[in-house]
Amino acid sequence: MTSQPLGAAPADGPRLALTERVKRLRELSREAEVWIDPERARVITAFYRENDGKYSIPVLRALALKDLFQKKELYLGDDELIVGERGSAPKRIPTFPEIACHSLEDLEMLASQRMITYNVSDETKDLYKNEVIPYWRGRSLRDRVFGRLEREWMDIYESGLITETLEQRAPGSMALDGKIYRTGLLGIKEEIKSAVAALDFMNDPEASDKREELTAMDIACDALILYAKRYAEMLAEKAALCADGARRAELEKMADVCRHVPAHAPRDLWEALQTYWFLHVGVVTEANGWDGCNPGHIDRHFYPFYKKDVESGALTKDSAKELLCAWWIKFNNHPAPAKYGVSALESGTYNDFVNISLGGMTQEGTDAVNELSYVFLDILDEIEFIQPQAHILLSRVNSDEFLKYACRVIRKGRGFPAVFNADAAIEQQLRTGKTLADARGGGVCGCVETTCYGKEAAPLIGYINFPKILELALHDGVDPRTKRRIGPASGAAADFADYEELIAAFKLQAKHVIETKLRGTQYLERMFAEYLPQSFLSSLIEGCVAKGRNYNDGGPKYSISMLPGVGIGTVTDSLAAIKKHVFDEGRYTLAETVEALDGNFEGRGEMRAVFANRTPRYGNDDDYADAIMKEISDYFIDAVDGRPDSRGGTYRMDMLPTTCHMYFGEMTLATADGRAAFTPLSEGISPVQGADRGGPTAVLKSAAKMDHARTCGTLLNMKFLPDALKDENGIQKLAGLIRTYFRFGGYHLQFNVCDAETLRGAQREPEKYRNLIVRVAGYSDYFNAVGKSLQDEIIRRTAHS
Fold it and tell me: What is the pTM (predicted TM-score) of this model?
């Protein structure tokens, strides 16, 4: 690893020489197979069977967590410097049967998937057959809620109009802030003790419930302190038996680290890294939150420890970077928990959407970039894993030097780092009630979701299918795929006299879907608040201890629920085609258009070509289409924004797909933009694949017409040919393009830098491209780990030169 003067930005492009240890750790993590780990299901099931009903639900769950960390197998790899896994070894993934219990059929399906395989041992199958399924059948949260959700909600869910993350995963989309590096868990326990002492049992009817929540948080803190103590004892024993002097010294240091953290605040970089990692393992083991635990501003948090250790001589810059690399690799040991049913279709990836922020603005409004901002870009560049993801927050106060350094990593073509407009993220948060200091301390987690780090619960609550809503409007509320009425009567398409009547029908159907979706979400949120509190997570998030309320029940200082919309490009172009060719020019009637869509354009090739090629398309800076996009996005934002949720917060709209545009496409007939039935929708706020013919600037000008500040995140994917960025002139142009979009008010950009022939070659000979990484939606993945339909969709995205 190369060294620079402390605090200096690198003089040229990204570079980091990985040590042999880091190479071995990387190879172990890369090559390890993914297995379902039965340990958590076995311990949690046995504890519940013995203790359910003896304690309040929060205390029961906290005691179960403590029992798990008392019994959990401790893993130590030969080269490890940071310890802790949520399974018994790297890529051993626990299950969460109290939330949603896999069936034996589920386990067989997971093991047989060709791309995203979760190996399942006979031991695990027997455990599920004999212990887990018999106990949790009817008791899991998923079983409880699916028997009680209203028929209208099930109709739109089963028809592919919505998905629901809370059907099987706990509320997540959170990130930690700097408090965890200033206060150990013993300090948090003192805060809990003070909060209990301040309870008013005479005048507060919730005081007893608050005491139970606070008691549970206290127990959960003990669980992680116990876990660290067990590691300290094991490491000391290993050190005593180690013949290699250098490794013995490392093991002794690691034992000392684990004796101190997370009980106490960290004193050096090693302890800071281990602190975060213990807390991360605690959060993702307690529950399987979607976008479950994000580290936040690691360059800001770790830099004081790094600077102190290097200046004191406790670490060299190279040994510090080796520690940072070892920490980084730990994330790749944690593929996403195995999903169920629809969610497996909408998000078929091992990526668990951990997202790391670099750069941005300090709480005082100054440039937050420091030496570690560049070091982490180097690590991202050289480790080449799909997780953790990393992005840069680019503010007006950040230098172009930092932006261009990031652009040189982007040029490698792996889809990272993504780039976010830090000023827009702050504006979004101010609009939802954060203080300026808190907004500057926030950022992005998951894919593109804006959140306030360490102070907010901001879970995704599922996705909504925009083009399918138009399909309902064209069929008087009937799903043409299933022939079932699932929406209100809005009029026969043949009777619509003008475009305005069609839009009115669209908005009527949209209102029904939104209202029905949110009613179901309200119920699911209350079920999580009552039956699945996350007490350890609550102890780390500001507000929960002071209020005596759980993270899932309005405890955090701030709370929002995010509803992502999918397919804005597809629905915009479809409405533009109908408006122009049916109502403006009278080329076709709406009745024959609907007939053509229902028949997948069979015998209507000319109509399909007209719709696809002679229509104003979103993404080309054409106001005819872009005005439709603006009207539709404004309608959904207006319909959702600021409505109260069940946790004392509000609902907010964002625009991201994960890979839900694939699943929603499979549930949607042909659309009037020329798209064939059951093929992917447009993703994020990107134009329809191949429809952006006016070049990259036109794409940005179209996308910027959306009011990004009124969302909680938007996702724009762009693809460039490698030659466009081959030299510094290309880097300068890319940096200018990003700055221009952000001046327009845009929020997010991410890039694939590749050509279609390379991707087709990877399809033909996957063994030659096993490490090819591409940007999928709000995350990167190995190209050959995604299904062929998604591969084809990525290839179809327009590449700009």
Answer: 0.94
